């Protein structure tokens, strides 16, 4: 699996994201488009960023009945993104339907990744509200295994879980890991953070980095530093 740095473009308008991307004249970063930008600008923003030569992770985290997810994925597959995702909590039937919808007539498709348990959910809320009483790390691994058995390509997880996910699901099962900060940087609202170099050591395949790059005084320099530490 080719390692890469994915830049989380958490902006609320096309203007802001293009001002940001215009700075990158050499290496074009792999870009993550999340709900904020997609809901603000619609599918056209995906086409425009793709046309500028970026790979795209469309992070919309689908979760609905299998038929609805299958049809939504068929629409997204026409956008020519490189990676997209669903919630593993939608169950195996939903994940299989997502894969079917995503697969183009020629058999090609973007990578499909599962969100396991959101990092904003802790043990207490999982037990009290979701009535899931197993330890959180076991729940994450169970979701990962179910995603793999459904035929998905990988999961979003913490770099700290990447090694265990690979042990459970195999080396080629992709780990996409947010929560990355430079050793001398500000963690912000991320609770468990890892440097790009440490994420590499722990076996992450892709790191997702937002504010350490988007809010840096020199975003290109921050991106290049991430690539140097993570990809080498
Ligand atoms: O700015 P920062 O580097 O914290 O951005 C991380 C990105 O990864 C954000 O787009 C955030 O929504 C996403 N993410 C995360 N933790 C997860 C899943 C996604 O931080 N568990």
Rg over C-alpha atoms, rounded to the nearest angstrom: 17 Å
The proportion of residues in beta strands is 15-25%
Number of domains: 1
What ligand species are in this complex?
cytidine-5'-monophosphate
Q: Which percent bin holds the helix content?
A: 40-55%
Structural summary, described in words:
The chain has 232 residues and is α/β, with parallel strands linked by helices. The chain has a single domain, classed as Aldolase class I (TIM Barrel, Alpha-Beta Barrel), CATH 3.20.20. Helices cover 45% and strands 16% of the residues. It has an eight-stranded parallel barrel with strand order 1-2-3-4-5-6-7-8, surrounded by six helices. Strand 3, helix 4 and strand 4 form a beta-alpha-beta unit. The protein is globular and about 45 Å long. 38% of the residues are buried. The mean pLDDT is 96. Cytidine-5'-monophosphate binds next to strand 8 and helix 10.
Keywords:
about 230 residues; alpha/beta; TIM Barrel; eight-stranded parallel β-barrel; 11 helices; 8 strands; about 15% strand; globular; binds cytidine-5'-monophosphate
Tell me briefly what this model is.
The protein has 232 residues and is an alpha/beta fold. 45% of the residues lie in helices and 16% in strands. Bound molecules: cytidine-5'-monophosphate (C5P).
């Amino acid at each position: 699996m080719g390692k890469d740095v994915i830049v989380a473009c958490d902006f609320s308008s096309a203007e802001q994201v293009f001002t940001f991307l215009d700075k990158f004249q050499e290496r074009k970063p792999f870009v993550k488009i999340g709900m904020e930008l997609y809901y603000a600008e619609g599918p056209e923003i995906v086409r425009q960023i793709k046309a500028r030569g970026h790979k795209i992770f469309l992070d919309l985290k689908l979760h609905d009945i299998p038929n609805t997810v299958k049809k939504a994925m068929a629409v997204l597959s026409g956008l020519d993104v490189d990676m997209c995702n669903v919630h593993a909590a939608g169950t195996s039937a939903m994940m299989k339907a997502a894969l079917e919808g995503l697969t183009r007539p020629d058999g090609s498709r973007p990578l499909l990744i599962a969100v396991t348990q959101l990092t904003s959910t802790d043990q207490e809320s999982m037990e009290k509200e979701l009535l899931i009483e197993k330890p959180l790390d076991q729940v994450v691994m169970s979701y990962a295994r179910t995603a793999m058995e459904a035929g998905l390509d990988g999961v979003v997880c913490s770099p700290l879980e990447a090694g265990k996910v690979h042990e459970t699901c195999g080396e080629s099962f992709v780990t996409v890991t947010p929560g990355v900060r430079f050793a001398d940087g500000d963690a912000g609202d991320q609770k468990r953070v890892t440097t790009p170099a440490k994420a590499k050591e722990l076996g992450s395949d892709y790191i997702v980095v937002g504010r350490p790059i988007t809010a840096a005084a020199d975003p290109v320099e921050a991106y290049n530093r991430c690539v140097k530490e993570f990809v080498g």
